[in-house]
Amino acid sequence: MVASQPINATVAIADEKIAPSGSISQANNTKNSVAIDKAEFGIARVDARGKVNFIPTFRVPLQEGSKYGWRIQLKDYQGEVTWREVLRLPKPPETWATDDGENFTVSADGTESVMRRKTIANDGVIENYWTIAAGDPPGKHKIQVYVDERLIATFDFDVFPVDRQQSTGRNRSL
What we know:
By secondary structure, the chain is mostly beta strands. It has a single domain, classed as Immunoglobulin-like, CATH 2.60.40.1930. The protein contains 1 helix and 14 strands, in the order ββββββββββββββα. Keywords: ATP-binding, Helicase, Hydrolase, Nucleotide-binding.
C-alpha cells in the first residue's frame, strides 16, 4: 500500500453510477462548523495528457499502480482542515508506505493504518489516494475519514483480483 499526495490535475467526473456493492456513510453534525456537501469514493485514472479522471466505484482492481481514494466536498468551507483517515484491510499487505511518512501509523497486526494531515481545502475539497502495490491483499476494505476528530464519512469497498490476460488485453487461443 502506498499513500499518495492528492493528484494536482483537473478532475473530470465520469458519468457512471456508483456500484451497489459498496457503500458510503456520511455523518453531519450541525453543532460543528464542518458540514459535508458530497463524499465520493472511486478510482483515479490518469490519461496520456496528465488529466485525471475520477470514476466513482466501490470495486478496485488489484492491479499494481491502480489508484483509489476519496474526495469530500465540505459545505461552505475554505482554509486549513485537519483530517484523519483510518484504512482497514482484510489482512496485512507486504509493505506500507506514504509519500512523506509523517503522521502515519500502522496497527500491531498490520491490518490498519492511521494517517493524519492538515491541508488547505481548495474550494472546500479534501481528498486522499492510495496506489496498489505488489503484495496488497484482495477483499473487503474500509476507510473512515474524520475532520477535527469527528467521523464524517465511511467508505466500504472491494479490492478484487484481475485476470492477468484480461488486464494485458491478450486473448486466450487454443
